[in-house]
Amino acid sequence: MVDRQLRRRGIRDERVLAAMLEIPREQFATPETRVSCYGDWAMPIGHGQTISQPYMTALMAEALELTGDETVLEIGAGSGYAAAVLGALAAQVVTVEIVPTLAELARENLRRTGRDGNVTVVCGDGSVGFPEMAPYDAISVAAGAPEIPAALLEQLRDPGRLVIPVGGYGHQDLRVLLKEGGKVSDRVAAGCLFVPLRGADGWR
Ligand code: SAH
Question: What is the pTM of this model?
Answer without folding.
Answer: 0.98
